[in-house]
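Hey, I'm writing a tutorial for new members on how sequence and structure tokens pair up, and I'd like a real worked example in the thread rather than a made-up one. If someone can provide the structure for the chain below, I'll link this post from the tutorial.
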Amino acid sequence: MKSAHECEFKWKDELKAYDEKMKDRGSFGPNVWTVIDLALPMAQCLLSSVLLVVYFFGLDKWLMESKSFVMFLAAWLVSVIVLARSRESKAREQLYETMLPFEAREMRKRHERELVLLKAAHDRAVQRVYLPEQESRT
């Protein structure tokens, strides 16, 4: 079985290039235009659906209140943010799959699982050490 360090050294250039590429990306992508490109179509879609619901249910008085405008803006903002974030997470996943070879991705998954198992074993060992001490105090 190869050590994790040997495998990591083998894929060092790919991992460094991936980390360098990810460093430049923000929460919504490498630039803000992704969010701006989504804002207008989402506003049009949301406005048309709100007007359709208002017409269908006869909510004309509700539409004239200032609260309805604030609710519309909040729903529009949330939908743009959620859509931009989901698009960015898909782009990050695709970038991860294209930049790193399959073996490197599997090595990272295995390494993460080993870290979780190691932390769980450590927590159990700490509980075993301190449990008799706590029982003697009671």
